[in-house]
Amino acid sequence: MEIIIYVVVFIVGVMLGYARGVKNVAEIMIDDPEKFKEIMQMARKAREEQKLNEDMKNDRETVIDVEREQGIYYAYAEGGEFLAQAPDFRTMFDVIKQRFPGRSFRINKYNPRLTEEESQRLLKAVFESFGEPVTDRNNQNT
Length: 142
Description:
Mean pLDDT: 77
Order of helices and strands: HHEEEHEH
Number of strands: 4
Largest sheet: 4 strands, mixed
Strand order of the largest sheet: 3-2-1-4
Shape: elongated
Helix content: 55-70%
Number of helices: 4
């Protein structure tokens, strides 16, 4: 009999907590729609980050594409998922290493989005950051 009381109290508690949560969300939506949009964007970003991390755990090697826009370098996984951004390559790869420890990365030796000088700095930064040779998309050492 005692266990039934505990189960009923637990269920009532869950229902009350859920109702309070719904009420809080409704109040935010009505009182401050901009805050609600911000919360939803944060939740969406967290889901995308979680999906990217799960995908990367399943695939131990990732091909990186790098592009420059207004003096900032952006790194993307081959599928287009954002990895990192920074004003220089070394910082960008340090961020990638911090976000994805133990991962292997490949990068194209030839990148049409970068100048020849940037490509050389990119290759140097990859070697300094990861201590590994850079490979092309055919998986041959360059």
